[in-house]
Design brief:
Structural class: alpha/beta
Helix content: 25-40%
Strand order of the largest sheet: 11-10-9-12-8-13-14-15-16-17-18
Largest sheet: 11 strands, mixed
Oligomer: single chain
Strand content: 15-25%
Length: 486
């Protein structure tokens, strides 16, 4: 149980009606979770305004309300706290509620369009290999030492986030590594979190359905670095032209990493095979199990973070060589007749291009490349024809199919993708709405030495159609089909 006045530090109070000495049973911002003794924070969301539900939660027995606008009817026995920004207030309330756990950890945030999940997972694996108790917050899963907790968002809401960080502290974690999405920054989910360091991987076309313009998307990423404290470090990819933009106004200590330009932490890709990468990192040769130049960037970022956190260089490089690929990220299997299947989360134009470039670099002079790709519903529609165009330009055969159509008509999503198919590539392109049928077709078309790329869903174990999630696992499906071929 908490006392309201202890939760209000840094919340930007404008006005208080009632007593702040009331006891709080819990904190919620979803009216459906309100109960007797709750503190309800009325947040103006992208689709729902919590202010509309104030009377409803009062009927459920909440004892205090945080809001930006006081309701016309104030109920006796309920404390109302008016603030400038409810979302920002929620972030600080959540941190205060859990005893400001991020201040008790060395917490590193990774932001960027691509590479966030792989980099945080590599860092978590690395520090566990180095013998440290550590925590992970990622799109694929959350983990506290050996305990795995399912993940629902790239960056959890403030209450979930601080609850997980608090559990990490309780379990003895010294370090924690988390993905920081642009949505989370704009929605103030990370506003009250204390970071020991921030990393920028890259920025390309994505999430314009939410941010509306690429400039807004860049500003959202940059805002994360703007708020880093002076004691923290800011590490950016110097090969990305927006890397230095990210750290223009940061108070944190600035560092760079790169493959193709001058940087504080430099890596050179020596060899690239399906079996792994040979890298020259900071002047030392290291053989890693991951594949592709994009993973050379992720490994270099992980190495740089570890060194900035005062780890011994050779120990870090030795540990890096033992790390495993991340589930659903260039996750490949081979059939009995030597067809390679690759499952990858690539759901942006840049990520798809990177994966296909890697396949061509590794598979040069061998079989054909068959790409299965879809685009998610209720998401940035502008990238749909772009992704189809990239798939056609870089593949021998292309199958356009469903990803997670969500509330949209999957056939209409595919029609929008078809607009990007160049006229000369129409004959090599198929459109199959049923994703499982698309994978079956690709396998039936394949010959020994071919590579089948299944892009877009990666680690996901479901497909969402009309609000219903049904079990669906790209890797499981292609493994089953490969076994039938054997």
């Amino acid at each position: 149980m908490k006392v309201l006045k202890d939760l209000l530090y840094k919340t930007g109070i404008v006005e208080v009606v009632g007593s702040t000495d009331v006891t709080i049973a819990d904190v919620c911002f979803d009216s459906r979770q309100a109960r007797e003794g709750s503190l309800f924070v009325a947040v103006k969301g992208t689709q729902v305004d919590g202010h509309r539900y104030i009377d409803q939660v009062v009927d459920k027995g909440v004892v205090a309300i945080i809001c930006e606008t006081l309701p016309d009817d104030l109920h006796t026995g309920v404390t109302y706290v008016r603030v400038h920004d409810s979302a920002l207030a929620l972030a600080y309330i959540a941190s205060n509620y859990y005893g400001n756990p991020s201040e008790k950890l060395k917490l590193i945030g990774i932001t960027g369009t691509n590479g966030k999940t792989t980099t945080v997972t590599l860092l978590f694996q690395l520090f566990r290999k180095l013998g440290y108790p550590a925590g992970l917050l990622s799109t694929v899963k959350n983990q506290i030492n050996d305990q795995i907790i399912p993940s629902t968002h790239t960056t959890p809401d403030p209450m979930q986030l601080n609850g997980l960080l608090s559990a990490m502290v309780d379990d003895g974690c010294e370090y924690a590594f988390m993905e920081v999405s642009s949505h989370a920054v704009v929605q103030k989910r990370t506003a009250a979190i204390t970071f020991a360091g921030g990393v920028f991987s890259n920025i390309t076309h994505d999430h314009l359905d939410y941010h509306l313009t690429f400039e807004n998307y860049i500003k959202a990423k940059k805002e994360f670095f703007d708020h880093l404290p002076a004691e923290a470090f800011a590490l950016v990819n110097n090969d990305d032209r927006n890397g230095m933009v990210m750290i223009q106004n940061t108070k944190a200590k600035k560092y760079t990493y790169a493959l193709n330009s001058m940087a504080d932490y430099k890596c050179r890709l020596v060899e690239n095979h399906f079996s792994g990468l040979l890298l020259n990192m900071d002047g030392h040769s290291v053989l890693c199990k991951l594949v592709g130049s994009f993973n050379a960037y992720n490994l270099t970022a992980a190495y740089a973070v570890a060194v900035l956190l005062d780890q011994e260089k050779l120990e870090v490089l030795t540990a890096l060589s033992t790390l495993s690929p991340v589930e659903g990220r260039f996750d490949y299997v081979t059939s009995g007749n030597q067809v390679v299947g690759i499952v990858d989360y690539a759901h942006t134009p840049d990520a798809l291009q990177n994966v296909l470039e890697t396949i061509h670099n590794v598979n040069a002079g061998h079989g054909s490349v068959i790409t299965i790709v879809g685009c998610g519903g209720d998401r940035d529609a502008a990238k749909r024809p772009v992704m189809a165009k990239i798939a056609c330009e870089m593949s021998d055969k292309v199958i356009l199919t469903s990803d997670n159509p969500r509330s949209e008509d999957p056939a209409e999503i595919i029609r929008q993708m078809e607009r990007g198919v160049p006229p000369g590539d129409v004959r090599k392109t198929l459109s199959i709405v049923d994703r499982k049928e698309a994978i079956k077709t690709a396998v039936s078309l394949s010959k020994p030495g071919d590579v089948i790329l299944i892009a877009g869903k990666g680690h996901e174990k479901y497909q969402e159609i009309k609000g219903v999630r049904t079990p669906f696992d790209d890797k499981k499906i292609i493994l089953e089909l490969f076994q039938i071929m054997a």
